[in-house]
């Protein structure tokens, strides 16, 4: 352990190894950061930093974030992927069996969810998802003046995802409210997190109840998870918690991914023109929107031992904040990173994470079918009113995006 440190620094982060890195006075969970993250993200990419406000390390270059994500035993998830260290604080809800687990425990639950969301399952639901996207877009083209968030980015996933899980109709309004709590709860104990958790009881009760086998329609993803408890791959107790992962991670992410994609098309008419000229770009347009906006902005890991990142020593038990959004715009990795270009090679973006925890669902089906429907049916999408941002400690997206959408 290095000794060249002031005692003030030693207490600030719990008395472990002193931060040998620059200290940065930035709060990535503050409203002004959410409003305009790019300048602060540029500063964050200059070096591995220590953020005094929350006593955490920050990594923001693509290569660094990628390295942390690919070393899951040293940068672990089982102590929580939010600021809270599960070894020191009681988690606000029982830990996720997949997100908040490390290999080898993670390997088993991950294998089950991969099978539940396999390409074969996706193929089965594809036609229904496609038809629903076309119907949603057709209806919006009739109305012309719409809110692209409520009427498309939210309405479309809500029209297909809960059915695909096998949820009953009643109570679905809890789903987005629950997810908003989950994603703000990864953040520090600021007003956003505390308020979200304070109001979470009814949403948690709804989710817990719907995760039970008897409440999930046969043939859906939920029932499919439970079926793996019959094979012995998971226990009876684990099955509902794995269904909870689908409900936590599967809706608000696609809402914000779609919101990002539509916001890009509305701001960059040249990209909308390219998409219309070649609707087969729909899938890459969605990927580029996920890179460009990074709906999931940040995640933490916890160090399980002393480790170096880029020559900087980090002690055991430290929280490391990964800036996925900053990495996805790192000029060391991307040409013209601040340009939305739906023909660029998007592979290697880490908007879905990387390594063993990389997103198992990926929203690509929902993203692709909505963008393909817009490509074929819409002539233009124009912003016609005030754009309002939605604030969440982890999710980046809009509250409202009023647009005029014209028929091709
Ligand atoms: C879970 C990272 C995000 C998409 C996510 C959120 C919750 C869970 C998994 C992933 O509850 O397992």
Describe the structure.
The protein has 17 helices and 13 strands. It is of the alpha+beta class. The protein has a single domain, classed as Cytochrome p450. It has a 6-stranded mixed sheet. α7 packs antiparallel against α13, α11 (221-230) packs antiparallel against α12 and α13 crosses α15. Residues 1-15 have low confidence and may be disordered.
Helix-strand layout with pairing:
Elements: H1 7-12, E1 23-24, H2 31-35, H3 37-44, E2 49-51, E3 56-59, H4 62-69, E4 75-76, H5 105-116, H6 119-143, E5 145-147, H7 149-165, H8 174-185, H9 191-198, H10 201-210, H11 221-230, H12 238-249, H13 252-267, H14 269-277, H15 282-293, E6 298-303, E7 307-309, E8 312-314, E9 319-323, H16 324-327, H17 364-377, E10 378-383, E11 388-390, E12 397-400, E13 402-407
Parallel strand pairs: 1-2, 3-9
Antiparallel strand pairs: 2-3, 4-6, 5-13, 6-9, 7-8, 10-13, 11-12
The structure holds 4-propan-2-ylbenzoic acid.
The site of 4-propan-2-ylbenzoic acid (4IA) has 9 residues, from helix 12.
Element pattern in H and E:
HEHHEEHEHHEHHHHHHHHHEEEEHHEEEE
Global geometry: globular
Contiguous helical run count = 17
Calculate the terminal CA-CA distance, rounded to whole Å: 65 Å
What are the low-pLDDT stretches, counting only 5+ consecutive residues below 50?
1-15
Count of separate structural domains = 1
**Considering DSSP H and I runs of 4 or more, what fraction of the residues is helical?**
40-55%
CATH-scheme architecture: Orthogonal Bundle
* CATH C-level label: Mainly Alpha
Strand portion: 5-15%
Q: How many DSSP-defined strands? A: 13
CATH superfamily: Cytochrome P450
- The Rg value, from CA coordinates, equals 21 Å
Bound molecules: 4-propan-2-ylbenzoic acid
The major sheet is characterized as: 6 strands, mixed
**Order of strands, widest sheet:** 1-2-3-9-6-4
Query: Which structural class matches the secondary elements?
Result: alpha+beta
CATH topology: Cytochrome p450
């Amino acid at each position: 352990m290095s000794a060249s440190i002031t005692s003030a620094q030693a207490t600030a982060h719990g008395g472990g190894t002193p931060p040998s890195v620059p200290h940065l006075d930035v709060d990535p969970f503050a409203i002004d950061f959410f409003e305009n993250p790019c300048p602060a993200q540029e500063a964050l990419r200059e070096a591995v930093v220590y953020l005094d406000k929350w006593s955490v390390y920050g990594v923001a270059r693509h290569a660094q974030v990628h390295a942390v994500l690919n070393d899951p035993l040293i940068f672990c998830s089982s102590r929580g992927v939010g600021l809270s260290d599960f070894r020191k604080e009681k988690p606000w809800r029982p830990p996720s069996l997949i997100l908040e687990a490390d290999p080898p425990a993670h390997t088993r639950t991950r294998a089950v969810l991969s099978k539940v969301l396999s390409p074969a399952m996706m193929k089965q639901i594809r036609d229904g998802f496609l038809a629903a996207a076309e119907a949603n877009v057709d209806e919006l083209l009739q109305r012309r003046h719409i809110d692209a968030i409520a009427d498309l980015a939210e309405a479309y996933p809500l029209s297909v995802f809960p059915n695909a899980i096998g949820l009953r109709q009643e109570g679905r309004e809890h789903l987005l409210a629950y997810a908003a709590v989950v994603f703000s709860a990864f953040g520090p104990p600021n007003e956003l997190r505390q308020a979200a958790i304070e109001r979470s009881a009814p949403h948690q009760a709804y989710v817990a109840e719907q995760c039970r086998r008897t409440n999930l329609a046969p043939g859906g993803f939920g029932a499919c998870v439970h079926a793996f408890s019959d094979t012995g791959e998971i226990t009876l107790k684990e099955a509902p918690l794995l269904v909870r992962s689908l409900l936590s991670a599967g809706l608000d992410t696609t809402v914000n991914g779609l919101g990002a994609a539509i916001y890009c098309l509305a701001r960059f008419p040249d990209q909308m023109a390219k998409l219309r000229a070649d609707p087969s770009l729909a899938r890459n347009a969605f990927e580029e929107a996920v890179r460009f906006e990074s709906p999931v902005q940040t995640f933490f890991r916890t160090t399980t031992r002393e480790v170096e990142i880029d020559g900087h020593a980090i002690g055991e038990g430290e929280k490391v904040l990964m800036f996925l959004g900053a990495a996805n715009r790192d000029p060391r990795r991307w040409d013209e990173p601040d340009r939305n270009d739906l023909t660029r090679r998007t592979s290697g973006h880490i908007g879905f994470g990387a390594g063993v925890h990389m997103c198992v669902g990926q929203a690509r089906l929902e993203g692709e079918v909505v963008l393909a429907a817009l490509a074929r049916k819409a002539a233009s999408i124009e912003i016609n009113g005030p754009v309002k941002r939605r604030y969440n400690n982890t999710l980046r997206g809009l509250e409202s995006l009023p647009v005029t959408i014209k028929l091709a």
